[in-house]
Design a protein that fits this description.
With 127 residues, the protein is an alpha+beta fold. It is built from five helices and four strands, in the order H-H-E-H-E-E-H-E-H. It has a four-stranded antiparallel sheet.
Length: 127
């Protein structure tokens, strides 16, 4: 009586070969660089700001009114946009009635937050 070869071994070899080829394919795929929103000279000349607008205003339209190109438009937690702004654009935005705030972008920390000693880093009881 002849033993029939198992089909599991050839199938396992095919699956392993396919899995082994995945990283090689992914590594050779062409990755396109994102198109910059502003020129490097403009970005270096102007600071980045986070602008918050009223809920009934369109953040992209507010940015367009002052000639700003948003780096990002926020519509979920924050209603506004981030952009490189000149001092003149900052002044114009702060004068608009539908702009709630214009803040320079930068690192944020909760270390100096009011009540930190009372509640700790992540609520009552600290960490």
């Amino acid at each position: 009586m002849r033993k029939r070869p198992s089909r599991a071994l050839p199938m396992a070899v095919v699956v392993l070969a396919a899995v082994a080829a995945l990283p090689a394919c992914a590594a050779t795929a062409a990755v396109r660089e994102p198109v910059p929103q502003t020129t490097p000279a403009t970005a270096a000349a102007h600071a980045t700001y986070i602008v918050t607008v009223r809920k009934d205003s369109d953040p992209a339209e507010v940015a367009e009114r002052v000639g700003a190109t948003p780096l990002h438009v926020y519509r979920t937690v924050l209603h506004g946009f981030a952009a490189h702004l000149s001092p003149e654009q900052v002044a114009a935005l702060r004068a608009m009635p539908d702009v709630e705030s214009v803040e320079a972008d930068g690192p944020a920390s909760g270390d100096d937050a009011p009540g930190r000693r009372e509640y700790g880093a992540w609520g009552p009881g600290g960490r």
